Amino acid sequence: MRLKWYYPIIGALVALLIVMPFDWFPGHYTTLMIFIAINTMVTVGLCLLLGYTGQVSLGHAAFYGIGAYFSAILSKTYSLNPWLAMLIAAIATGAFAYVIGYPIFRLKGNYLAVATLCLGVILYILFRQLGQFTGGPDGISGIPYLSIGGFVFDSSFKRYFLVWFFCLSVLFISQNIVNSRTGRALRAIHGSEDAAESIGINVDRFKVKIFVLSAVYASLAGSLFAHHVTHVSPSTFSPMASVIVVVMAVIGGLASIWGAIFGAGTVVTLKYEVLLEFGELEIVIYGLILMLVMIFMPAGLFVWLKELYERLRLRRVRRRAET
Amino acid sequence: MSQLILETRELSKAFGGLIAVDKVDMAIDSDKITAIIGPNGAGKTTLFNLITGVYPATGGDIFLNGKSLKRIPVHKRVSLGIARTFQNALLFGNMTALENIMTGLHSRSSYGFLEAALRLPKAHREEEDIMLKATKYLNLVGLGTNARQNALSLPLGQQKLLAIARALATEPRLILLDEPGAGLNTLEKRELSDLIHRIRDMGISVILVEHDMPLVMGIAERIIVLDTGKKIAEGTAAEIQKDPKVIAAYLGEDED
């Protein structure tokens, strides 16, 4: 493996991640960081689907919700082992995505966007209306914590490490997929479906596969959310939440796996630290951010900053060359 | 003793009322460079799309080495040995030149999602093999030094060569080249003819659709002429040039 310039930066970030939740670290960002990790998992899935494969989904909160509700219902109502509940949730979400994947990917572009948006709306209505399972608008409370053997993840400090373990695993797996035969097939589909098909890539199958993978990521994130907050209600999985996932993916840079942390980090921090004061205006601000990013930094904030760094370095070198 | 690689029998394709390909019978020898020519709208590209499976035929059948291709989807025909290029190169703009060819090796490798996700040894082995073969094809078309360049940053002539290399990477028995000479300058066209000869010498059958007559007459050992979906003539360059039907199709017939 070749050494890249950003490896030390990643190293420093990982070190920071490890020390952040300790008491002696200034501020208390543990909860915030947990939400960043959970949202990163959903965002990475969308990056694979939208950024690499070029297929839009405006309904990813639906899969996030299916994961959360399956975990909640199975572990609370049916007292199943939370890990087993999480596994069943992931399999169920994957199967659901697989079944709807084939018909939905007959559509392209705007039509696909509308279809996935509808998917999100339908699931949201189901979460609200299937009261006997989902608890209706009130949702489900008292979801048990995850535990390994006798070790219960009953504090944010403990869950922090659990959630980031999942998040980094998902990022690692995604990075490997991108740099593989499968990743090239996905990018080829983005480049030209006709050309991809002409060199033997089964375009439909790869679209569905990556859709299923991203749905499973969202489902795992949903399960972790349920066992962290111990309460789920429909509003978390509204169609608006799907749009926010797109905002995170766009800010992070659509075709950038590690950018997902950056995108999720920016949006989650804004949401909990700044925008809470703005109430309804929150949505307007997201829209504004999305527009500005698309116009001025179409490759995403993360990539934009990286290029800015390169530009500044170049300018410095030039100036030195002149003197 | 030459052998048939591809055969079509009464192959037809209608788009609604428009008959784009009309009962075309062709027999393509495996060791000859075959050119398909004809005026605009003659059905040449449609014929390619039928052979590669982009469109289903509305009549007739296609045989590769004697086996019918009916109901075999595009991506499976590639593993059977049919490769193609497009009029506009259709390279993957989000990749380097080398990655474009590596993608071409897709159907000749097999490791899947799980092996990729966990970087299992099989993935590692196949990746090395893919990289090696891709470099070989890149060198074959003389783009070895452009490996890490973005595919779309190359000049058009090199893009077209790269597209051919990508098609060759699928390790075909038959390659269909759709107007490979379009937009190339004289020097690039000479390189192209050299390359086509080399492809033939590798034991790969070549069929090309081309408008550039000097190029066609220079390399094609057999020429098939289409007009308004029908095959109107077939033969060597010398035979075709004398054929009154071909002259009529290209220049128009006398009024009286």
> Major sheet of chain A: size, sense and barrel closure?
2 strands, antiparallel
Please, what is the oligomeric state? heterodimer
Q: Sketch the topology of chain A as an H/E string, one letter per element.
A: HHHHHHEEEHHHHEHHHH
Strand order of the largest sheet of chain B: 6-7-8-3-9-10
What secondary-structure arrangement, pairings included, does this model have?
The complex is a heterodimer of chains A (323) and B (256).
Chain A (H helix, E strand, L loop, with lengths): L6 H13 L10 H23 L7 H18 L4 H23 L4 H21 L1 H4 L5 E2 L5 E2 L2 E2 L3 H23 L2 H11 L1 H6 L4 H27 L1 E2 L6 H14 L6 H16 L6 H16 L4 H22 L1
Antiparallel strand pairs in A: 1-4, 2-3
Helix pairs in contact in A: 2-7, 2-8, 2-10, 2-11, 2-12, 3-4, 3-5, 3-10, 4-10, 7-10, 8-10, 11-12, 11-13
Chain B lengths: L3 E12 L2 E12 L3 E5 L6 H9 L6 E6 L2 E2 L5 H7 L1 E3 L12 H8 L8 H5 L3 H20 L15 H13 L5 E5 L7 H16 L3 E5 L3 H7 L2 E6 L2 E6 L1 H6 L1 H8 L5
Parallel strand pairs in B: 3-8, 3-9, 6-7, 7-8
Antiparallel strand pairs in B: 1-2, 1-4, 4-5, 9-10
Helix pairs in contact in B: 3-5, 3-6, 5-6
